[in-house]
Amino acid sequence: MAGEKIRIEDLANPVLTPAQKAALDYAETQTIDLSIPAVMNAAEEATELSCWGPDDWKERLGVWFDEMNADDNRTALGRMILFGDCVRYATTRLRINDLLERHPEIHDVKIERPIIVVGLPRSGTTHLVNLIAADQRLRSMPLWEGQEPVPDPNEQPGEDGVDPRWHRCNEIWERMQATSPLISAMHPMEPDHIHEELEFMLPDFTSYNLEWIARAPKWRDYYLAHDQTPHYQGALLTGLKILQWRKPRERWILKCPQHLEQIGPLMATFPDATIVVTHRDPISVIQSAATMNAYASRQNYHHTDPQWYLDYWHDRIQRLLRASVRDRDLLPSDRTHDVLFHEFMADDVGTVEKIYEVAGLEMTAEARSQIQSYMDAHPRGKDGQVVYDVRQDFGADPAELRKAFDFYFEAFPGVKIQVK
Fold first, then answer.
1. How many CB atoms lie within 10 A of CB 226?
2. For position 158, what pLDDT does the model report?
3. CATH of the domain at 68
């Protein structure tokens, strides 16, 4: 219900719904082989393709699986979901390679002057990118298209005229809502929701995405130790070119919090981009991320261990912000705009207007109407508002947690403390 306050009382000791119990029980009856050959066989069977390209991806997927296979706390359902995701990524990899072989002209497509939103996760980046994407002059990537950028050539739209990829994405979303009923209030994933372009790195089996769906500190260390530029200039850029080739627009609107710690690769790939950096009290971000992940873990782990998530995301947000402060001078001063969370929440459209000024994009009456229509159709809190409380839910003192972020408040003194 719109505006309803939702408090999650069972983070540490989940009270499972019948749907959650049924999903966990079903997974226990399945044999899940988290191995590279199993993923390859499933993807080749689904596509009848076998061109994998350079095989460096196998090392990265091997790191994923080694960590997951060594974790006795991971449920069978968590393993089954990860296997399904990896088959989807591998299927996309095969279809992209096949498409590029048949249409090499895609490599020549240009992605020029994109507007890219970077900023902490849970800092308003999703709301902001969806607002701007409502302006139909810009190209954006809805979730359904990002998850399957290359259609199955053997499929045709059904009687309703809707792309089968949209229906598949919607089915996934409906299952998510059935087994994680509060996810709509925390991070909606409807098919038309504008998604993060890191989706294109997943067929390369890289990005920080695994950290959001699994306890993966070993993968974090591996990922941070390797230059991501080849994946930005390769997998990510190629994915955008494919979508641009299918449905051209003059400019793109993109967003991903991962870019905060990958400013070098980002600017090497998109040197003419306008960059929008969102800012929010890190403690608000941490308590939101820790709560969301601890809630989701009731399906992926036998023991939810909320303290693990608080500790992990307290450290992870520090890493993201330290990298962003370190690399700030790599951003173009005349094409970078900082957005303070409390100002954005107070004036959505005014924030977009300021971004357009920096990007050299006119705010037309039609664009304003399209943005307003989106806001009318997607009011804040329409699925309820989860109450995030680091004191009550995690037994932590916000002031103590905040001490680790003095460097950030010194660099950006306008950031308003929200959790006291």
1. 13
2. 80
3. 3.40.50.300
Sign of CA dihedral 106, 111, 117, 120: positive
Calpha distance 332→312 (Å, rounded):
32
Is residue 158 assigned to a domain? no
Given this model, what pLDDT does residue 2 score? Answer: 56
Interaxial angle between packed helices 282-300 and 18-28, expressed in degrees from 0 to 180 and rounded to the nearest 10: 60
Residues of the chain with pLDDT under 50: 1
Q: How far is residue 165 from each of residues 48, 50, 146, 151, 337, measured CA to CA in Å?
A: 18, 22, 10, 7, 35
Note whether residue 416 is domain-resident: no
267 Rama sector, left if φ>0, alpha if ψ -120 to 50, beta otherwise: alpha
State which H helix or E strand residue 274 sits in.
strand 274-279
Instruction: Please give the pLDDT value at position 62.
Output: 98
Residue 399 sits at φ, ψ, to 5 deg, of: -65, -40
What is the distance between the terminal CA atoms of the chain, rounded to a whole angstrom? 28
Angle between helices 76-102 and 282-300 (to 10 degrees): 100
- The pLDDT, as a whole number, for residue 212 is 96
Separation of alpha carbons 172 and 175, rounded Å:
5
pTM above the 0.90 mark?
A: yes
In a domain, 72, yes or no: yes
Give pLDDT, residue 188.
81
Would residue 354 count as lying in a domain?
yes
DSSP 73-124: TB-HHHHHHHHHHHHHHHHHHHHHHHHHHH-GGGGG----S-EEEEE-TTSS
Domain hosting residue 38, numbered range: 5-153+164-411
Number of structural domains (the chain) is: 1
Question: Alpha-carbon distance 105 to 144, whole Å?
Answer: 24
CA–CA distance from 208 to each of 135, 141, 196, 307, 390 (Å)? 29, 19, 12, 21, 24
- Which among 6, 9, 85, 1 has a CA at the least distance from the CA of 43? 85
Residues 6 or more apart in contact with residue 410 via CB below 8 angstroms: none
Rounded Cα distance between 240 and 259, Å, is: 16
**What pLDDT score does 3 carry?**
63
